[in-house]
């Protein structure tokens, strides 16, 4: 049983002839697996790390404002990352998957029509997200343990950055259109330029200089909004001006086109909510055990785990395009081989990061502050959970591959299993022992279970049960 139905493999008569096929599409269908994956992944990985550095740059500068400001950022960060994951990884994956499958089956007109539908979906969701977070922000951050100065800092940053949330949703829609065609370079260049602007803009607006007033933590939010606007403009120009295989064209809105995106994007969104809920609820557990200083330590240590998401997304976006295009063309066996190859690469990358963090936690934590309580909690988290990061990377890469296949039931169930083990296990550990070390042990077990379940079921052929052949 599956949560969504993958598009049926395209008959040979429908698939575009190789001679008439765009060279980028031909590469996705016939290029050697590992070299093609790495060729597509390296610019995307670079840009995702650049995009993730937005949060790191902001956190580094805000850390100079004190522990309360750092704790406030830790309260907002899960929600902001959830928005990034929803717009770029979940709905973005649905957009890229739909376009990749359309191009793989030779349906160029459908690929063009999907661009407008993608912008409508992400634009409306961006506006809804702004209203939700701004309206309920105080209650949300209080529920996560925010109080006093840390709550004030969280709201000062949150109200600004989420007022511009629609810009994040729109630039991820444009980027996903390009990635669905196999074009990883244009989104990379746009995001790198945005990050290059953020580096001087963030401290300028936080601390002020000359005629520019010091805005404090709110200045960090304004820096994100301004750079998001620039990125949106650049990516929008690339798609609207025709520098994309799938081009923006005005066309009647059709339910089938919305469904093609949402059948992947909506289900993928549930997985994103699971990931964010896991972090938010465990943040609340840490707050109950150790207060604001412990939140700052856990949030800073956990930020490295969040950094793995864009790192794996560097592989994940090509996996969506590669798997989706091959599924659309009826090449199921090749699609599965691509997915498992990507999973192995992701495991090696993220496990390397996790082991390094476990061995030298202060090298990471010391970038953001020197408060002893923050360092102690953050180091305890990284020493226990860091060695299991490889399983997180493995599961997350196969989640992206499953987006391309249009098969998301098992990644969704694996995310639910992770949530239950981390939160219920962490709560039980805290009640029974009163020790954060055992809470972190529950988080580690949850990551192992997450990655192991996904790779086991996909390798067993779960994508092709229910009527579809392997191709």
TrEMBL record:
<feature type="transmembrane region" description="Helical">
    <location>
        <begin position="186"/>
        <end position="209"/>
    </location>
</feature>
<feature type="transmembrane region" description="Helical">
    <location>
        <begin position="380"/>
        <end position="401"/>
    </location>
</feature>
<dbReference type="GO" id="GO:0005886">
    <property type="term" value="C:plasma membrane"/>
</dbReference>
<dbReference type="InterPro" id="IPR048279">
    <property type="entry name" value="MdtK-like"/>
</dbReference>
<dbReference type="Pfam" id="PF01554">
    <property type="entry name" value="MatE"/>
</dbReference>
<feature type="transmembrane region" description="Helical">
    <location>
        <begin position="339"/>
        <end position="360"/>
    </location>
</feature>
<feature type="transmembrane region" description="Helical">
    <location>
        <begin position="115"/>
        <end position="141"/>
    </location>
</feature>
<feature type="transmembrane region" description="Helical">
    <location>
        <begin position="153"/>
        <end position="174"/>
    </location>
</feature>
<feature type="transmembrane region" description="Helical">
    <location>
        <begin position="436"/>
        <end position="464"/>
    </location>
</feature>
<feature type="transmembrane region" description="Helical">
    <location>
        <begin position="408"/>
        <end position="430"/>
    </location>
</feature>
<keyword id="KW-1133">Transmembrane helix</keyword>
<feature type="transmembrane region" description="Helical">
    <location>
        <begin position="261"/>
        <end position="287"/>
    </location>
</feature>
<dbReference type="InterPro" id="IPR052031">
    <property type="entry name" value="Membrane_Transporter-Flippase"/>
</dbReference>
<feature type="transmembrane region" description="Helical">
    <location>
        <begin position="86"/>
        <end position="103"/>
    </location>
</feature>
<feature type="transmembrane region" description="Helical">
    <location>
        <begin position="307"/>
        <end position="327"/>
    </location>
</feature>
<dbReference type="GO" id="GO:0042910">
    <property type="term" value="F:xenobiotic transmembrane transporter activity"/>
</dbReference>
<dbReference type="InterPro" id="IPR002528">
    <property type="entry name" value="MATE_fam"/>
</dbReference>
<keyword id="KW-0813">Transport</keyword>
<protein>
    <submittedName>
        <fullName>MATE family efflux transporter</fullName>
    </submittedName>
</protein>
<keyword id="KW-0472">Membrane</keyword>
<feature type="transmembrane region" description="Helical">
    <location>
        <begin position="215"/>
        <end position="240"/>
    </location>
</feature>
<dbReference type="GO" id="GO:0015297">
    <property type="term" value="F:antiporter activity"/>
</dbReference>
<keyword id="KW-0812">Transmembrane</keyword>
<feature type="transmembrane region" description="Helical">
    <location>
        <begin position="61"/>
        <end position="80"/>
    </location>
</feature>
<keyword id="KW-1003">Cell membrane</keyword>
